[in-house]
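Provenance

Sequences were taken from public entries as deposited. Structures were produced by running a predictor on each sequence independently, with no templates supplied. The record for Monosaccharide ABC transporter substrate-binding protein, CUT2 family from Consotaella salsifontis is shown for reference.
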Amino acid sequence: MRSLILLAGTAVAAGLVLSSVSANAMTVGFSQIGSESGWRAAETSVTKQEAEKRGIDLKFADAQQKQENQIKAIRSFIAQGVDAILLAPVVATGWDSVLEEAKEADIPVVLLDRQIDAPEDLYLTAVTSDQTYEGKVAGDWLVKDVGDKECNVVELQGTTGSSPAINRKKGFEQAIAGHDNIKIVRSQTGDFTRTKGKEVMESFIKAEDGGKNICALYAHNDDMAVGAIQAIKEAGLKPGTDIKVVSIDAVPDIFQAMANGEANATVELTPNMAGPAFDALDAYLKDKKEPAKWIQTESKLYTPADEPMKVYEEKKGLGY
Ligand code: AHR
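Predicted structure for Monosaccharide ABC transporter substrate-binding protein, CUT2 family:
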């Protein structure tokens, strides 16, 4: 079993409270997935801020959602002789060869926000949430909210083959298992983007009697939920009332939607994965201190009872 450290999400989300220990002018390559969501934008800007605060020379590569670009970036970081690599892996499989190359070059790799299917000795640690648990929190919220009522759910999945898409689906299904009144009637990828979230929701509405057959939307991230909310409104229905909306990330716009009565629940994912990653790298590079294989961030449920406009104001300047 993996050893694990749990980080307090709210403090971490603020991005300001973790140690600002100098990492001895480390050079770190960061292979980022792209900019598919507000959460991703925040992770990128928090990572840059954390690096600057610690005097780290951060080499940033945007992979535009393509694994092949991430593999090229990692090879380029290895050729440049960086001290360490941060990798936010777009999909879960296909990393073994390039990570073996990093290992041979003695360059530690830290995974950010997504897990991979690869032997654990190929990376130093993974800073991620428990994505199955996130899905379970979303599903538990729905189970409680609908009670005994019949409820047809439509699901917008994240990027196919990515660990959050796989695990958030699994966790939600675990939560609704045994509640026969709740059924997932349609499930399709929206690739974690607003545009696709809206497009796919339009097709769900069309296929389900203009949306009348849909009781709730479960979206694997808030951006897809925000796109879907637009589709629901354009279909003449009330998001949050006619169709309940539950999603994951806790980006500012979902709090705005909650304040407007158009979204019902979100599960927070901190964008500060880099702070704990740099701390682990610092301890490892200076003192060869092996971190836990999984540094787990917190997953907190928010609903309209949590003063959504206050949270919106707190989060809106954080790079989302
Ligand atoms: O891996 C984390 C997920 O990636 C976020 O929940 C989503 O918004 C992003 O695209």
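The CA atoms of residues 198 and 231 lie 5 Å apart.
Residues 38-53 form the longest helix (16 residues).
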